[in-house]
Structure prediction request, 409 residues.
Amino acid sequence: MNSWVRYSEDSDFSIYNIPFGIFSYNSSSPRIASMIGDQVIDLKAVAETGIFDKLNIDNSVWESNYLNAFIALGKEITNSVRLILQKELCNEDSILKTTDVFIPVQEVRLHMPVKVGDYTDFYSSIEHATNLGKLFRDPENALLPNWKHLPVGYHGRASSIVVSGTNIYRPKGQQKPADSDPIYGPCKLLDFELEMAYIIGKNSNLGDPISTKDADNYIFGKVLFNDWSARDIQKWEYVPLGPFLGKNFASSISPWVVTLEALEPFKVDGPVQEPEVLPYLQYDGTSNIDINLQVLIQPEGQEENIVSESNFKYMYWNMRQQLAHHTVNGCNVKVGDMMASGTISGKDEKSYGSMLEISQGGKKTLTLKDGTERKFINDNDYVILRGYAQKEGIRVGFGEVKTKVLAAK
Prediction:
């Protein structure tokens, strides 16, 4: 496809992408948009041209503060919107050429794309789980007995998921030094977790499991996801019920939702799963996605430093399996629910998806370009996640999620 909107070859937002998000401009209320190159596409203004008329979409949908109402229209409608936009952006005689529907991205404010009702975080990278098992348990038996039999997950806190550009505060909580009773204070071991998340695009009924075969019909699209972790708080509290204050203080996401359909060309085979999984977790076809991922740390006023380069294709448990397991007991899902992958680590040190792994639990030091050192994240550091898929000249990316860490209140 060749678009008459010009953009650079390395743009995440090519004609093959056409993601969805929420923006505001000047004093306008938030509303739905798409993106091509460095131009935000105001979909309310596009709808006013009439090119979506045959879809019979109520005008109020375009003026929503979140994508939920749009997503709930169903994939037949949302995919049609995306395909119509692609067609018009390649049509030299398109009415969009003569209308004011494009706004430079630097002039707008991007908002949370969806209202998240429920949020689940999985633990689906075998490399990450093995690295942590070696650090904290038995180097010879790093994985717990259940890990290769089911996608481990926990229910997280939806209210503290924030969009890129939202500062977070260093959390406070209880910690247990090795040589004293528990203490209370600011987290000393603040960490990022390189993750991706998918957004539920269709309601299911209580009591009705979703099969791996049908899972794609319930997944609207994906975002980058930084699941912040307070490692010292987490270590003291997690037995016996798992993550709580060490995780629920903030998670950061990218503002543009890239549809599952845009990512279809980048599907690849996943790792061989041994032992064989139970029938409800078995699936046909390719279910992993080749998405290049990057984490950078930028001290305030200094240069960016690449600290991790990983790939979503490494995931042991794929999205279809996660959703099938999540609902096999009859749990229902709703439009806007968010399911995070868990930390995405690769096979070598350059691809580790957390400072906990990079620093080997604080034993190793990372030196940045400005000469400062890190074992975990400092106050006033920016942490940046970026991701894109690329194949045969087609590039589909996510932009970035960038977050500054402020000192504890």
